[in-house]
Amino acid sequence: MITIDDELLKRSLLNATLNGLQSHYISDCPFCGKSQHLYVQRKTSRTTRGGKNASYYWQCKKCDSGGGIFKLLKKLDKLHIISNQREVNILDTFVKKSLFEQEVQVQQHNPPRPLGWKSIKHHSYLNNRGFEPWQYLLYSAGTTVIDPSLRKYIVFKVINNSEYNGYVARLFTEDDQLLRYKNSKLTDFSTLLFGLDEINCNTDTVIIVEGLFDKAAVDRVLELYIEDDVKCVACFGKKISIVQINAILNKGVRNIVVLYDNDAVEATKKYSNELSAHFDSVRVGWVEYGDPGDISSIDQMSHILDNLYDPVEFSLSKVSIKQL
After folding, report:
1. Residue 259: CATH number of its domain
2. Where is the domain boundary, 148, 168, 187?
3. In what order do the strands lie in the sheet with 24-28?
4. Domain that holds residue 166
5. Residue 140 contacts residue 157 (beta carbons within 8 Å)
6. Which of 208, 213, 244, 316 is within CB 3.0–4.6 Å of 293 for a Cys-Cys bond?
7. Cα–Cα nearest to 170, from 215, 134, 208
8. pLDDT, tens digit, 9 for 90 and up, residues 172-227
9. What is the pTM (predicted TM-score) of this model?
10. What is the largest CA-CA distance in the chain?
11. Do 208 and 282 touch, CB atoms closer than 8 A?
12. Where does a domain end: 187, 214, 230?
């Protein structure tokens, strides 16, 4: 749950005053400029119609702008006042301490940076796979001509908690002598998530996919780069570790959608059930025709999201391809 010091919140707003019930701050709207028309809910136990805690929700009575506090503070250039702290009980503290101890044991060992790496804004290989301009920057895409082992690869930096942890490189040319993927050595990818830092304080739901290009397709179709409530992360394969689970929990996420390739039935069963022990809601998406990277339209994605499975229901209804 987001916790914001009340006095800091008041000072961050424009000419803020309390309403008669002292439940809201009333201030000038930074979006339309109308004086004393922006209403911001103070910390409360009330919930919205969607079941979320209503603390810090806001709306302008003039221009009808509104939403979660992240959007407002970003407009005001006051994001630094957010303290994304979850209220925990003694059991939560014990569990987090245990998870933290496990996380310490798998710290990264200073993975080397790709020599001569330079960011790119376009590339024919990625363009042919549907990449849009914003994805190059968001995914830290680049190339290098200095490192001979990576000259035929597009190199994506892996950033978790604002720190460089390694890279994933994808071959962009036809060459049977080279691996399709070449990842950084000394990087324990079982502790990392591609896209972790995109999760913000307003994110309630995270879609988990296997690979970077699966994430790219989901992000593109759902336009998640402009969406706060839902984000997508890739776990670099079928396995999900307790360290990765802890990383998502520490972001305050409540809901998970597992969206794996359709040949990963057993892994989907295993990890969707494991995730159910940690999150309020876990659902499973089924891509009938292949993997999430093949999704190209909102109609395809809507069909998947409109037909999500409970993990137990999925386990009973789906048979692994290996069993057929």
Report:
1. 3.40.1360.10
2. 187
3. 14-18, 24-28, 38-41, 58-60, 66-67
4. 118-187
5. yes
6. 213
7. 215
8. 999 999 999 999 988 999 999 999 999 998 899 999 999 999 999 999 999 999 88
9. 0.68
10. 73
11. no
12. 187
Total domains in the fold of the chain: 3
Token reading at 106: 């798998």
DSSP secondary structure string for all residues of 46-114: -B-TTSSB-TT-EEETTT--EE-HHHHHHHHT-GGG-B------HHHHHHHHHHHHHHHTT----PPPP
DSSP 114-133: PTT-EE-S--HHHHHTT--H
Same-domain check for residues 154 and 262: no
Same domain as 279, residue 219: yes
Shared-domain flag, residues 200 and 306: yes
Residues 142 and 230 in one domain: no
**Residue 273 in domain:** yes
Considering the domain architecture, whether residues 200 and 319 belong to the same structural domain is answered as yes
pLDDT tens, residue by residue, 12-45: 999 999 988 888 999 999 999 999 999 999 988 8
Is residue 265 one of the residues assigned to a domain?
yes
Q: Are 183 and 167 in contact (CB under 8 A)?
A: yes
The tens digit of pLDDT for each residue in 102-159 reads 444 445 556 888 999 999 999 999 999 999 999 999 999 999 999 999 999 999 999 9
Q: Is residue 101 within 8 Å of 175, Cβ to Cβ? A: no
Q: How far apart are CA 240 and CA 291, in angstroms?
A: 18
Q: How far apart are CA 14 and CA 77, in angstroms?
A: 12
